[in-house]
Amino acid sequence: MSQFARNLQDQVARAEKGGSIPTDTPRSIIQIQNVTRKFGDFVAVNDVSLTIYEGELFSLLGGSGCGKTTLLRMLAGFETPSSGRILIDGQDMTHIPPFERPVNMMFQSYALFPHMTVEQNVAFGLKQDGMPSAEVKKRVAEMLDIVELSALGKRKPHQLSGGQRQRVALVRALAKRPKVLLLDEPLGALDKKLRERTQLELVNIQESLGVTFVVVTHDQEEAMTMSCRVAIMNQGRILQVDTPHAMYEYPNTRFVAEFFGSVNMFEGILVEDEADHVVIDCPELSRPIYVSHGVSGREGGTAYAAIRPEKVALSKEEPADTSRNCSTGVVQDIVYLGGESTYLVKLDSGRVVRVSLQNAYRAAEPEITWDDRVWISWQPSNVVVVSS
Amino acid sequence: MSKRSPFLISCMAFGFAFLYVPLLLLMIYSFNDSKLVTVWGGFSTRWYGELFQDDQILGAARTSLVIAAMSATLSTILGTICGLVLARFGRFRGRTLFSGMITAPLVMPEVITGLSILLLFVALEQLIGWPEGRGMTTITIAHVTFTMAYVTIIIQSRLGQMDESIEEAAMDLGARPLKVFFLITLPIIAPALLSGWLLSFTLSLDDLVIASFTAGPSSTTLPMVVFSSVRLGVTPKINALATLLVSAAAFCIVIAAIIMRRAERERERAIAKAMAEQEQM
Amino acid sequence: MSTELDPLTGGATVSPAPGAAATVAEQTKADAPPPRPKHRLYRVLFRGPLALRGRGLVIAIPYLWLLLFFLTPFAIVLKISFAEFMVGVPPYTPLVEWVDDTYLKITLAFSGYKYLLEDSMYVNAYLGSLRIAATATVLCLLLGYPMAYGIARSSPSTRNVLLLLVVLPFWTSFLIRVYAWIGILKNNGLLNNALMGLGIINEPIEMLNTEFAIYIGIVYSYLPFMILPLYTTLEKLDGSLLEAAMDLGCRPWKAFLKVTLPLSMPGIVAGCMLVFIPSVGEFVIPDLLGGASTLMIGKVMWNEFFQNRDWPTASAVAIAMLILLVLPIVGFQRYQLVQEEKAREGSK
Ligand SMILES: Nc1ncnc2c1ncn2[C@@H]1O[C@H](COP(=O)(O)OP(=O)(O)O)[C@@H](O)[C@H]1O
Ligand SMILES: [Mg+2]
């Protein structure tokens, strides 16, 4: 992530907390207020409220069918909310048709006009605004230059490769300099290698133009790589809005923890609930889980403790403190993933725990191997208590 | 099972022979010098000469072509609107009746369509004095009514295949619905429009029953002339006419197929080229 | 913030949303076009209480056309079938005689339909049409299925040529194609001449003006309509399904019966409908090939109208055909559509 995005993130975080920093408070560009969209009895988007700030790259992340596209289409004006309001740049846009909105969209299928050349495609939106043709020409050349497609301006879409089409779709939507660019799975149709490269390109273009991007994606890694902030959606609702870092380290629900990266989830009873720590008794672990932050749970109630695989230590020796936050087990399987390896440790209770270790050395033989009896342990600060 | 068994081959051979031998015989005997159509009397093109001197047939052919062109144009316009309404307008009051009225002519026996629309014209003439008698106008209206169903289906299915987000993209870029239709939708579905027009043209040119009901004394169409002379027996002149009609149709179809094949190949080549470029990148 | 970083967005604002709030681009607002009044007109036309104006207009044109030229005619046919509308229009109803009396009118009104039931010709013609059309459809299927199957199994390039050959006759005149068979089937026609020439028969076989000729005519005219939908389903059929069936021990013939045939059912139904529906009401084929004695309902109605000039009876025949033939077909198609939609939803 660039320095620019970093600064923006900090500002957004402060603004969200209600801090008043008069000079460089980010301006909200999109406000979604209690928006619901129903198709018959089916609720595709359920009471969503969200603020998106000027200049940020915001991702809507969620599984297939969770309502991301529907939400995006309401921003573009192709769907009308069943209830709620949408403000763009302070204006109520809930019932404004798409062709009058100061936002543009890049479609999942690219939706390039098949009967027009690349140049004509990019010029289309400008001509609709009645821009003089000399200016249109200049702007089209400028836009094609950004994505290095100047040489292909006279081609028709079917004469382009997938990656080229994707870039034409991007600049066509950007040519009008919209206040917000909406992107529906912009990289969904590209193969993995091209996708990774394009992610960075997209971020560069976004930052150099300063246009707000709202990106829909189902790919957690993609959201993490590109976004200033991410909203996680499930069944039409937004579960959490945060920076990728906060989302990973401090998920607020089980769903978020499990969706955003892999996690070991332990269900237990909250036996001790203090302001600075909690203790969870989990039947699958032989020792209680001690968490060094308070939660707003009910003593005696069910609690979920999430521990990321890379935050679990693995060792043949007994850890210093065996009264809590550890357990014993047998290495059941080792999955070699190149940069790291995932160890599947079967605890005495039968529960399997994932542990990730960096393969920092090119050792011929790993220290810990199949069927070894091992200890797993973790720091109290590395456990997150989440709600169901 | 990728091989075709002898049974299949012989079925196909029989089927295609069944389809084409009658037409070939018709064409061969159009060059028969004898007036007796079934007895070969030597090669001659005299029937073609006589055909081109037959004012009744030539006049009827002209009438038919004019009616076919007019009704095909009108039914393409109306059918395109219908296809657009059915494919893009979602629900509206009266939609069921609308789609019912569009598809019903497809299953309606021609005799019923012909009779009913004739009775309408008669009633209208009594009521408001229009149409005055029957003629090319009434035939055209009747033909439009039954051919627009075919155009509608062609357009509707083409619009169904078309990626709707292309139209949305145009709207997103600031084009109003009417402009989207003329700048984006229409050029993309133009080939479907052309096939719809050709189909209506052929159906209209070919129609005997509905035209017979709705024709007036001065507006005899080609099928009506052919029908009345065929009822009197096989005549070599009709053979000559048939040969011309079949050849013209075959010529157009083959040319169209070749053009389409070539365009398709070119397209494939362009795609392959773009793919290869991508590999190099 | 973004101001220093984006030389491009700062340049000009492109989408002047009416009364846009202050933006970075605000400084350049001066040279942006003023809000266009077009928007306001648009709002009046397309939004608010008159919202449907534009859409409504588009729908209205074909809607009115169909109402006037397709639906109203049936109301008139219905009226005339009860024979009350034609009073005092001598040029068109020379055969209808009734006095302008309410009671008498009602008796006459039903006589048209009573006539249909009493004269066995109409019932026979109706049943005959169904029988002939059904038989011809089966014959068409028997010839069309192997052809479609063979085409679907051909190499792609041959396939295109063969398909072209199937469709080509459709684009040539229907009347001409029926006419071609007269010359072949006549008593002194080509087929009889050939058979006699070969010494197979001594006397010409009566072929024209028989039901056999009608079958030939229908199969010949409507074969493309059978082959095309069959081809479409057979071509989509996954070849590995058959291979799987044979791998599991099915003999080819049995694999065909158990896999191919059931899976091509939609094509069979579509093809049969496409052949059956137009042939039931067919007039040209029975008239030219079937001769005077053939009883098919389309021909009966034609004669009623053009030869007897009996408009009310022709109308009554039309109404009977509509109720007994067209409505069941439309109902069946609706039912099929609903089933298809259900299946599609189920597979989701
Ligand atoms: N026009 C529509 N009519 C009915 N249901 C719809 C429509 N559009 C979307 N849906 C439903 O809404 C849900 C959310 O869809 P979508 O927003 O496209 O999900 P995704 O998150 O995969 O983009 C899906 O279950 C979909 O079936
Ligand atoms: Mg989606």
From TrEMBL, chain A:
| EC id | 7.6.2.11
Per its record, the protein catalyses: ATP + H2O + polyamine-[polyamine-binding protein]Side 1 = ADP + phosphate + polyamineSide 2 + [polyamine-binding protein]Side 1
Any one Pfam family here would be: ABC_tran
SMART domains hit by this protein: AAA
Domain of life, per lineage: Bacteria
* GO molecular function term, any single one: ATP binding
Q: Known InterPro entries for this protein?
A: AAA+_ATPase (IPR003593), ABC_SmlMolc_Importer (IPR050093), ABC_transporter-like_ATP-bd (IPR003439), ABC_transporter-like_CS (IPR017871), Mo/tungstate-bd_C_term_dom (IPR008995), P-loop_NTPase (IPR027417), PotA-like (IPR005893), Transp-assoc_OB_typ2 (IPR013611)
One of the record's GO cellular component terms? ATP-binding cassette (ABC) transporter complex
GO terms under biological process = putrescine transport
Asked whether the keyword Translocase is assigned, the reply is yes
Q: Which SUPFAM superfamilies match?
A: MOP-like, P-loop containing nucleoside triphosphate hydrolases
Query: Which keywords are on file for this protein?
Result: ATP-binding, Cell inner membrane, Cell membrane, Membrane, Nucleotide-binding, Translocase, Transport
Q: Does the keyword Cell membrane apply?
A: yes
Q: Where is the ABC transporter domain?
A: 30-260
NCBIfam families in UniProt: potA (TIGR01187)
Q: What's this protein's function?
A: Part of the ABC transporter complex PotABCD involved in spermidine/putrescine import. Responsible for energy coupling to the transport system.
On subunit structure and binding partners, the annotation says: The complex is composed of two ATP-binding proteins (PotA), two transmembrane proteins (PotB and PotC) and a solute-binding protein (PotD).
The family note in this entry says: Belongs to the ABC transporter superfamily. Spermidine/putrescine importer (TC 3.A.1.11.1) family.
The entry's protein name is Spermidine/putrescine import ATP-binding protein PotA
Q: Which organism is it from?
A: Insolitispirillum peregrinum
UniProtKB/TrEMBL annotation, chain B:
Q: Organism classification, top ranks?
A: Bacteria, Pseudomonadati, Pseudomonadota, Alphaproteobacteria, Rhodospirillales
Q: Which GO terms describe its biological process?
A: transmembrane transport
Subcellular location(s): the record lists: Cell membrane
Database matches in PROSITE patterns: ABC_TM1
Domain annotation ABC transmembrane type-1: ranges? 61-259
Q: Which domain of life is it from?
A: Bacteria
Q: Where would you find the membrane-spanning parts of this chain? A: 7-31, 65-86, 98-124, 136-159, 180-199, 238-259
Q: What is its main location?
A: membrane
Its Gene Ontology cellular component terms are: plasma membrane
Membrane topology per the entry is: Multi-pass membrane protein
Q: Which Pfam families match?
A: BPD_transp_1 (PF00528)
Q: What CDD domains does UniProt report for this protein, alphabetically?
A: TM_PBP2 (cd06261)
Family listed = Belongs to the binding-protein-dependent transport system permease family. CysTW subfamily.
Q: Which UniProt keywords apply?
A: Cell membrane, Membrane, Transmembrane, Transmembrane helix, Transport
Q: Which organism is it from?
A: Insolitispirillum peregrinum
The identity of this protein, by name, is: Putrescine transport system permease protein
TrEMBL record, chain C:
- Segments traversing the membrane: 57-82, 125-149, 161-182, 212-234, 255-277, 314-332
Any idea where the ABC transmembrane type-1 domain is? 126-332
SUPFAM superfamilies per the UniProt record, alphabetical = MetI-like
What Pfam families does this protein map onto?
A: BPD_transp_1
**What is a biological process (GO) this protein takes part in?**
transmembrane transport
Q: What keywords are assigned to this protein?
A: Cell membrane, Membrane, Transmembrane, Transmembrane helix, Transport
Q: Which CDD domains match?
A: TM_PBP2
The membrane topology noted for this protein in its Swiss-Prot or TrEMBL record is:
Multi-pass membrane protein
Family annotation (InterPro entries): MetI-like (IPR000515), MetI-like_sf (IPR035906)
Q: Where in the cell is it found?
A: Cell membrane
Q: Which GO terms describe its cellular component?
A: plasma membrane
Protein family per UniProt? Belongs to the binding-protein-dependent transport system permease family. CysTW subfamily.
Q: What is this protein called?
A: Putrescine transport system permease protein
Q: Which organism is it from?
A: Insolitispirillum peregrinum
